[in-house]
Specification:
The protein has about 625 residues and is α+β, with helices and mostly antiparallel strands. The chain has four domains: about 1-200, no CATH class; about 220-335, no CATH class; about 340-500, no CATH class; about 545-629. The strands form seven sheets. The protein has a five-stranded antiparallel sheet with strand order 4-5-7-6-8, with helices on both faces. A three-stranded antiparallel sheet has the order 2-1-3. The chain has a three-stranded antiparallel sheet with strand order 10-11-12. α5 packs across α6 (about 170-180), α5 packs antiparallel against α7 and α22 (about 500-505) runs antiparallel to α23 (about 510-515). The chain binds zinc ion. Zinc ion (ZN) binds near residues 295 and 297. Zinc ion binds next to loops.
């Protein structure tokens, strides 16, 4: 009697290990002309005790959806039983195996063996196959439940037992007699549901022989075989990263995803995530220098970096699990010192304070001022979480220091790089409120400075790296924050007017330098007329001559208006000066000098009923007016 099944003719004399198993799976799935065999039961038995491996089902691939037919059913015994005990059970039940064989790890004390049954008719429907397999497992209660899978692989072994190759079993008879709907069906709920959904099942992975090399790591990823994978890919000294961001940068940019997956032609291949009839997928380097798996089929349309790709293939249930697997495979570690943990705790506590109302309760005005940009502050915390270095950079003030380019921050916040200016402005507003500190390059220890430069150059970016620190949001800190919130309001500052000049005029140079540390000094070069030498002078940066001139003009106009009508509005000034300056030039200048008005004996206040009466202000509403202090 001839049977059809899957056979791998590579012989082993001991149990195959991790990567060898992956290779067997690959050969069986990808080289069907060799692996699908039609042989006699006796021949199968001989192959198995020669050390070859087999799958009892006839499959067109590696998934249960590839199942075609089956007439061989095997049970695996490796615990708490003996050959004699199970053969006695066979006799009792009248269910006779065609043969059995001891496995590689069989000992006289621990009997590990398999019994192989052959059906009198070939089974071609999955339901019958499942019912028969699970019934056999239930009645041979000491056999391994894992043999229920239609794609189950069995290794060869050493010695044949009880060879009666003519023995067959009748599926319908056994099912009728022993199948228990309630007990057995539960075992297959998952599988059946999967079959019904067919190609719609998003968990299926399709490994095409045409697209993948026999050494593809895909089957090993799908079985979470990190041991085998690490023998190939982790065969180096452990790489230790200081931050999660460095680890992510390494795996997404340095590991060639196509090569790792064993894709023959990574610029165009049959997608592994859907039943692809034409090459719809490609792996390419995106603008951030990351390898991306992209499928262009409208029904599939995936776009994953290495993390997403591995997560999907392995059907990992959590992101940390995926990271753990990747670290094991490539022999990578992310170091986390106690100090780093403490820094993370600061950031988590800050996020809580920002979200549970504590911040707004204590910092009423500051909270109001930054309400529109609070989410940027939260995102910065997330960026910082991935970028905490192990150097003990913090002073005892509990500041968490991190660095990033504005370009990177834009990317993380999902805003266009064209908005870099706006983002910088928002960060400056946050710095003003002391919930974020922007640090000058000179405040950065050399080691970190070098590190940030090398990270920047890895990314092929000449973008300036910015250094930030986030203070711990204690109630003590909140006192400083709210002081700034009140000053912001008092000085009439606005988000749009935010600039070094606005702060310099309103709050003074010291504060301006605190927010714009990189502009602290101005370098001027002059040629000495007598010697011809270039003389470089570095001076504290103040406000520009041009803006000083504008302020002078505006003050003169204010003086004129006040002497004629007792007050003036910003609108009046803008119209009055239209010949000299464009409207928005005056408007911006006015915003930037609001905080400075008191120095000139002026103040900007909201008109009240009394003030309107006093200055004879016509019209509805209560506009802001500038009056003498
Ligand atoms: Zn696809």
């Amino acid at each position: 009697m001839k049977i059809k099944c899957m056979l791998d003719i590579k012989k082993f004399n001991k149990k195959p290990m991790g990567y060898e198993i992956g290779a067997i799976q690959n050969r069986l799935a990808n080289n069907l002309s060799k692996s699908q065999v039609e042989i006699t039961v006796e021949e199968l038995a001989e192959y198995l005790v020669d050390g070859c491996s087999f799958k009892p089902a006839l499959l067109n691939g590696s998934q249960s959806i590839d199942w075609q037919s089956q007439s061989v059913f095997a049970l695996d015994f490796d615990n708490d039983t003996t050959i004699q005990e199970e053969l006695d059970r066979c006799n009792l039940l009248g269910i006779h195996p065609s043969f059995g064989y001891t496995s590689f790890s069989f000992t006289d004390i621990k009997h590990k063996f398999r019994l192989v049954f052959v059906t009198d008719e070939v089974i071609t429907d999955m339901e019958t196959r499942n019912k028969l397999q699970i019934t056999l497992i239930k009645i041979f209660s000491k056999s391994d439940i894992n043999t229920k899978d239609a794609t189950r692989l069995f290794f060869g072994g050493k010695r044949l037992i009880s060879t009666e190759y003519g023995n067959t079993i009748n599926a319908n008879e056994i099912i009728e007699k022993y199948y228990e709907e309630d007990k057995c069906k539960a075992e297959y709920v998952d599988t059946t549901a999967k079959e019904e959904r067919g190609v719609q099942d998003r968990r299926n992975i399709y490994i095409s022989y045409l697209s993948c090399t026999p050494l593809s790591s895909i089957p090993l990823i799908s079985t979470h075989d990190d041991v085998s994978l690490s023998k190939i890919y982790g065969n180096h000294k452990t790489y230790v990263f200081e931050t999660n961001a460095e680890f992510l940068n390494y795996i997404t940019s340095e590991i060639n995803l196509g090569e790792f997956l064993g894709i023959k032609q990574s610029n165009s291949f049959n997608c592994i995530f859907h039943n692809d009839s034409k090459p719809s997928a490609s792996i390419f380097l995106n603008e951030s220098d990351q390898y991306i798996y992209k499928c262009n089929s409208s029904s599939c349309n995936v776009s994953y970096n290495i993390v997403g790709t591995i997560e999907r293939i392995g059907n990992f249930k959590s992101r940390p699990q995926t990271y753990k697997f990747i670290k094991k495979v490539f022999n990578l570690e992310v170091m986390e010192t106690d100090w780093q943990k403490e820094q993370k705790e600061i950031l988590f506590e800050n996020l809580k304070a920002l979200n549970n109302g504590e911040f707004e309760d204590i910092c009423y005005q500051a909270g109001k001022n930054i309400t529109g940009i609070k989410h940027y502050l939260e995102r910065l915390h997330i960026i910082a979480l991935d970028n905490i270095y192990n150097d003990k950079l913090s002073d005892d003030d509990g500041n968490v220091i991190f660095f990033a380019s504005i370009e990177f921050i834009c990317k993380q916040m999902n805003v266009s790089p064209n908005s870099m200016g706006k983002i910088s402005q928002k960060l400056a507003v946050l710095s003003y409120h002391k919930v974020l500190n922007k640090l000058d390059d000179s405040q950065i220890p050399d080691t970190m400075f070098k590190k940030s430069k090398s990270v920047a150059s890895n990314k092929k970016s000449n973008n300036h790296v910015n250094y930030f620190s986030i203070p711990s949001y204690t109630v003590n800190k909140f006192i400083e924050v709210e002081d700034r919130g009140i000053a912001w309001k008092k000085n009439g500052h606005t988000m749009k007017g935010m600039s070094r000049e606005m702060i310099a005029r309103g709050d003074g140079l010291e504060t301006a330098n605190e927010l714009y540390p990189q502009y602290k000094k101005v370098k001027t070069e002059k040629v000495d007329k007598e010697t011809g030498e270039i003389i470089t002078t570095v001076a504290d940066r103040t406000t520009t001559d041009m803006s000083n001139k504008r302020v002078e003009v505006i003050l003169k106009a204010i003086g004129e208006l006040i002497s004629s009508q007792g007050y003036c509005t910003e609108k009046q000034l803008i119209y009055m000066l239209y010949k000299q300056y464009a409207y928005n030039t005056t408007e911006t200048q006015l915003k930037r000098m609001r905080g400075q008005l008191s120095q000139f004996g002026l103040k900007r206040v909201k008109a009240t009923k009394e003030l309107k009466l006093e200055y004879n202000i016509k019209g509805n509403g209560y506009p802001y007016i500038i009056i003498s202090n």
